[in-house]
Amino acid sequence: MTYSNDMRKKAIEYVESGASQKEAADAFGVTSRTIWNWIQRNKEGKLGPKKYETSPRKVCNKQLVQYIQKHPDAYLREIAEEFSVDLTTIFYAFKRLKITLKKRHRVTKKEAKRKENDLLQK
Q1: Cys bridge to 74: 78, 84, 98, 121, which one at CB 3.0-4.6 A?
Q2: What is the pTM of this model?
């Protein structure tokens, strides 16, 4: 959860005015560890929230989507070979992009039984 810089400053001022970190935590509805972290970050001059960077992807999303549009019947194995990555990398990329590659059987079970019964009756 990200708290505003104004709230962080008020909590630090509250502690500096003579209150304990526990009292400040109770007053501002956060844990005492959070107050301690804010005080430490204030000493460093970095009171604002930490910036987290996402890790780079092995497969470019745009290229993957374009490849799937050109080759809709490709298997995961083939796609992995095309992008020179592991099969699980492609699997999780599809999961992230909400792409499903369910292959439809040419003959469903119901149709297969019907055809089988027709052959047996003849």
Answers
A1: 78
A2: 0.47
